[in-house]
Design brief:
The protein is an alpha+beta fold. The protein has one domain. 28% of the residues lie in helices and 25% in strands. Strand 5 and strand 6 form a beta hairpin. The N terminus is likely disordered.
Length: 271
């Protein structure tokens, strides 16, 4: 059911509370489970893209807009500052008895989600960010940038291994309460570049009220540049939105890296 816009501030505040509960420690439970098929590290990605840096103008051209997302999404300010202090916690290794080394990878995921950023800091002058709020209170953050080559290779490897290393685990909040967290691969449309996506779902209670926070997290790379996307909140994350963002967004990045101009974005595909 669509939430009236006048209630969205309160809903976003609730999202911030829900996000804080997601943070804590991770104990890996995907022990010995084969990585899901969406990890495309081992899949040929076609000809290598030129290792060139984006300009800020190119990065802006690679962004998606409201025209693509449809009428239920509205462009918003990047209010990541309101997440300061959220997603705190330390890894509880009690559930990582045989794979304690996995805890660090899961902790890194939690820490990065707390800042709304999947990757590290892009090279200066190569970054653009678009943030959108949905009528149901969810949020989509879409970031484009160029990164140091070694860091981006490491990030792709880390990201692709998360379903195997994290799986289903218990997150421990600072107040000692726990949430059940599940990290699984999310299928995305194939195409140029490397494309990977995760579904992250956390369930727990806040002030005695049950909550479920659902996030889709996607990473698309071409050469040394990348698009990262975090989509979701206290309503179910729209896998359709995530899939379309990957399908239309990745070719836009490839086009601008080759010096071209992406075509106009289709209007209202999700309407």
């Amino acid at each position: 059911m669509t939430m009236p816009r006048r209630n969205r501030l309160g809903y976003v505040a609730a999202l911030a509370v829900g996000v804080s509960l997601f943070a804590a420690a991770c104990a890996g439970a995907g022990q010995g489970r084969p990585n899901a098929g969406n990890n495309q590290e081992g899949r040929a990605a076609g000809p290598a893209a030129p290792a060139v840096s984006l300009t800020s103008r190119q990065a802006r051209h690679a962004l998606l807009t409201e025209a693509y997302l449809g009428s239920q999404w509205t462009e918003a300010e990047d209010s990541g500052d309101r997440r300061d202090g959220l997603l705190r916690g330390t890894v509880d290794t009690q559930d990582c008895l045989t794979h304690e080394e996995y805890a660090a990878a899961c902790q890194q995921l939690l820490d990065r989600l707390s800042g709304g950023r999947v990757l590290g800091t892009p090279l200066a002058g190569t970054q653009a960010v678009a943030v959108f709020d949905a009528d149901n209170g969810n949020r989509l953050r879409y970031e484009v940038g160029t990164y140091p080559a070694a860091e981006l290779r490491s990030a792709r490897s880390w990201f692709g291994a998360l379903p195997q290393k994290c799986g289903v685990f218990t997150a421990v909040r600072p107040d000692g309460r726990t949430e059940d967290v599940r990290v699984t691969s999310l299928p995305v449309p194939e195409g140029d570049g490397t494309r990977q996506a995760l579904s992250v779902v956390a369930k727990g209670t806040t002030e005695g009220v049950p909550f479920t926070m659902s996030l889709d997290v996607a990473l698309m790379t071409s050469g040394d540049s990348a698009i990262s996307l975090v989509n979701g909140g206290l309503a179910d994350a729209s896998h359709l939105t995530t899939g379309l963002a990957v399908r239309l967004g990745a070719p836009r990045l490839t086009t601008v890296l080759a010096g071209g101009t992406p075509p106009p974005q289709p209007a209202g595909l999700l309407d």
